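Subject: Sanity check before I submit

Could someone independently write out the structure tokens for this chain? I want to compare against mine line by line before I put it in a report. The sequence has 548 residues.
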Amino acid sequence: MKMLVIPKVDETDVLPRGRLSVKALVGFTEELVESHYRLQELNQHLCDEVAVLKGEKKRPDFKPSRMNEDAGKPAPTAQVEEAGQAEDAKPEPVKRPGSAKKQKTGALKIDHEKVIQPTEPLPPGSRFKGYRDFVVQDIVITTNNIRYRLACWQTPDGRRLTGQLPADCGNGHFGAALVSYIIYQHHQCQVTQPLLREQLLEWGVDISTGQIDAILSTDKSHFHLEKDALLTTGLAVSRYVTVDDTGTRHKGKNGYVTHIGNDSFAWFQSTLSKSRINFLELLRAGRTDYRIDKEALGYMKKQGLSLVLRDSLRQHASDWFADRESWHLHLDTLGIATERHRRIATEGALLGSLARCGLAHDLAIISDDAGQFKVLVHGLCWVHAERLIHKMLPLNEEHREDIARVRGAVWSFYADLKAYKLNPDLAQKGVLSRRFDAIFQQKTRYTSLTLLLRRLHENKAELLLVLERPEIPLHTNGSETDIRDHVKKQKVSGGTRSDLGRQCRDTFSSLKKTCRKLKISFWDYLLDRISCSDQIPPLSQFIEQRFA
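---
Independent answer below. Compare away.
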């Protein structure tokens, strides 16, 4: 691709008519050239797609080498050698992570022991010197079918007494271990229902497609209740949450799944919208009420709702509404019909409901700068902010140098923010704030880069929230990782076709990820709940204990 080299000119020069400075013209030209190259690249991608549809080969895609992954990151500070150090001193070899030796079979449960004698005859006078242990790990896959013969007796007075099934037979004709295995394979290992049935049939289990579907979706109310308790408890005891959403399909229509969580819990919910109203409704954790209070009116004022409408909402006899229908009826009664006014009033009433149910007003919400998440105390992800700089297309060598220099400064500043998190120092707050201004208010030789830095500087309070709240993370990598499993499952199985199936997918995704964060085996958890042994306490108790 040919690069357009723009000659350097004096920025004070003005065109003959005096209407457009040369500086403005150069910046405008750079933006046009950058847009031209982007359109060229997009056109090439479209041509590749057309070639694939025609059965032809597309242009080869050469991926960059991973040897220079840290090229954009600042190099570590070099250490100065002492004057009298010998030149031929060899540095100590650095071991790779995980190479430390350990007893691999020390914690294994030994089910059987077999003593094997030498095949050769023992000469007279041989002495026994103990054993050399060799452990072989294996599994046994077999069916375990039980026929319960319920004895029937008739008493002299005509009553009929019959033996009762044990408590672990509450899953019908399938045992707790088999039901747990089906749920585990489907939600943890992403195995589809047809492949799961094929596997079970080959192992000698007589099960139909409908029975597998029923095991995966019906009679899961206790799991749904435990999943809802995760969000209620997590929001009650947490100081921050990270959030993210992604697209999903349900009943052949596009929808969204939202993730809310932190290092102790993960919670998923699928909806047809990803608006701010939808996000606030999710934060209510099952509540349905709307409330007009100080928090609600303050939000409405901040969003620019007129004083007349705020007074009409404040002076009404009732400030509490049980559900969505009664709230919208109230807005109709007050004559609030404009879509923007209704949206702001609804968002404020939802915030009032959140404050009433005990949600901390200082709860920090860390996001990727999506508009629907900008409520309460909002913080931004540094990885997403730096990604905007990384994705810029340089037009010449000067642009490439400026992008590399700015990225290096951003990563160096990010490393200092991480150090501040570990050891907060009030004296460093002013220094870091001034460094932020120097990085994001600088003027570069790339006009688009300069404008991007100015836009990022407008979010200074959200990017530097860690200076006031050192406990919050600097990124949303946790949410990105948690929601990746949902994306993989959708690629494997497609969208959901029933409301019950969608609810079960969200529930078991939440429980699986939370078990992983709490260091609890998801298999042990499923087996405990389905067999009704109740040896593992509710997951919400583990969350409370961790924060306590």
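---
OP: Matches mine. For the report I'm noting this point. Confidence is low (pLDDT under 50) at residues 1-9, 11-15, 65-87.
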